[in-house]
């Protein structure tokens, strides 16, 4: 069953690469386009070194891919954040906001660690890395979108679809690796099915929704945002900082106890 979904995911990845090229969106989303090319190459490589025929090579490639893939996914999340905040006039505030979102992600990641289960395997470090990285990047992406929506900053249809699909991708990766860690490495089938299924769903959303004619915003909404919108954004950020600090303190207290 997983193999069928895996093949469908490979086909959807190739389809998305073609769509990005034909819709001329590669230059608009260069890091994301690299992620899709990377994912297609990795899937074909893992397929060539199957877990049954070459278990050691397969495991080694998979572990290495978690580290390199984490770097690429972080780049995609950063690219998405800067595209969402592109029209804020105060770029220093945008940088501070990114730091705040990183704090929120760290707070939640620490809370996730509380549910971890101690077990030993060569690939556990890679599982933990992807688990915590994906929940952090997921929060950065969703909170960035919530922040922009709260400030009533118009964004393109493409960017909205991109954030939602990226959230599906990262969310499936997080829950899949969390399930693997929480089960002590015994939920291999369920976690892998969740990860590959989530990737397939995200790839289909990207391939269907991303269009060249959906990249812009209305002419009357172009240009920098208003002072009122930026002030509302600062209020939202301040409230987010208060909540995240409270969550971080509670998680630290639980961790110490």
Spell the H/E element sequence. Answer: HHHHHHHH
What Rg do the Cα atoms give? Answer: 19 Å
Give the helix tally: 8
Q: Please, how many domains? A: 1
Overall geometry: flat
How many beta-strand elements?
0
Average pLDDT taken over every residue: 80
Q: Write the CATH fold name.
A: Rhopdopsin 7-helix transmembrane proteins
Sheet/helix structural class: mainly alpha
* Beginning-to-end CA distance, first to last residue: 43 Å
Q: What helical percentage do the residues reach?
A: over 70%
- Residue runs with pLDDT of under 50 for 5 or more positions: none
What can you see in these coordinates?
The protein is an all-alpha fold and 257 residues long. It has one domain: Rhopdopsin 7-helix transmembrane proteins (Up-down Bundle), CATH 1.20.1070. Helix content is 77%, strand content 0%. It has helices spanning 2-22, 30-48, 55-84, 91-113, 124-150, 157-182, 188-209, 227-256. The longest helix has 30 residues, at 55-84.
Secondary structure: elements and pairs:
Blueprint: H1 2-22, H2 30-48, H3 55-84, H4 91-113, H5 124-150, H6 157-182, H7 188-209, H8 227-256
Helix pairs in contact: 1-2, 1-7, 2-3, 3-5, 3-6, 4-5, 4-8, 5-6, 6-7
Summarize the structure.
With 257 residues, the protein is mainly α.
